[in-house]
Amino acid sequence: xxxxxxxxxxxxxxxxxxxxxxxxxxxxxxxxxxxxxxxxxxxxxxxxxxxxxxxxxxxxxxxxxxxxxxxxxxxxxxxxxxxxxxxxxxxxxxxxxxxxxxxxxxxxxxxxxxxxxxxxxxxxxxxxxxxxxxxxxxxxxxxxxxxxxxxxxxxxxxxxxxxxxxxxxxxxxx
Length: 174
Prior knowledge:
Layout: H1 9-19, E1 24-28, E2 31-34, H2 35-51, E3 59-63, H3 68-80, E4 83-87, H4 93-103, E5 107-110, E6 129-132, E7 142-143, H5 144-150
Parallel strand pairs: 3-4, 3-5, 5-6, 6-7
Antiparallel strand pairs: 1-2
Helix pairs in contact: 1-2, 1-3, 2-3, 2-5
């Protein structure tokens, strides 16, 4: 049997997009994302992350409900060799602040649902890029469209994430 090349999630999505671009990759509620759409969003996010200075080994935190965007962000982190840290939205702000203080992410992204109620999470992260997926981000936070625009003039970065790299950083209660 031929040996398969090791792949990370970004490579896996890009491979499916090349072979079956119109095939459904994600169904989320009433919205379907094809592999081509998922690969395109992951590439846009990887370019924006790279333009924001995210490098291999950096941590990228996300506070939001499950969404296709979260999957694309995970893939973008894999491509760059960054660690993706989903934050449990059910935790208190105090608990979330403790986790963020411990991991010190280089970028924190808030879903629109949490952009107002959890904007204070950014105060303990003076060196982090703060991105809010909201049309009117809180003071000190960058709007999502401005974040994506950072990467618009950047070619999709060459992947530096290796299949054996740590990708997911999860905090648990036990």
